[in-house]
Amino acid sequence: MASAGAPAGAGSLRVATLDGSYFPPSATTMLLELAVRELGRHRPVSREEISVAELGPGFTSALSREELAPAVLGRLRAFETADAVIAGSPVHQGSYSGLFKHFVDFVEPGAVAETPVLLVASGGSDRHLLMIDHQLRPLFAALQAFVVPAAVFASAGDFDGLVLVNNGLNRRMNRAVAGLLRLL
């Protein structure tokens, strides 16, 4: 478990980040980092990082929760019991990545009900922006999570490699994290 901001402890906000990138680190990974860093400026945070690309065959070959490798099941439980979730995916064919959805499919019904969730996504251009509202938001609404109204999307032009070059993205992230803090 990694931490951001103040040292982790009994009063730390338990945050699970779900990275749907197939090849991290990616722009989506950088958005998750930016969100955790901003949240850590306001509250002590202890973070459980979940990268679907790194979960391995004990995840990808599982068809039921019982078939998950113990380490993957531990990550899933950390996701289900987090105080808040920050979930992100790159846009793949107009939606979230398949492994991102595969992970979410294992979430127990009601496990993240009323959990505050901040959504982030990255895509090649601003044309992919609506994926958050048309794909991610309904997915977490079906899980009965409290989704922050402001989400953050970044396009390829917002980064030079993995270096953020658009300061407007920082302002959008600050606003989205402020919404997450209100839900907490």
Automatic annotation (TrEMBL):
Keywords of this entry: Flavoprotein, FMN, Oxidoreductase
NADPH-dependent FMN reductase-like domain span: 14-157
Gene3D superfamilies: 3.40.50.360
Family annotation (Pfam families): FMN_red
GO MF: oxidoreductase activity
Record keyword Plastid present: no
Keyword Cell division: no
Protein name per UniProt: FMN reductase
Species name: Arthrobacter mobilis
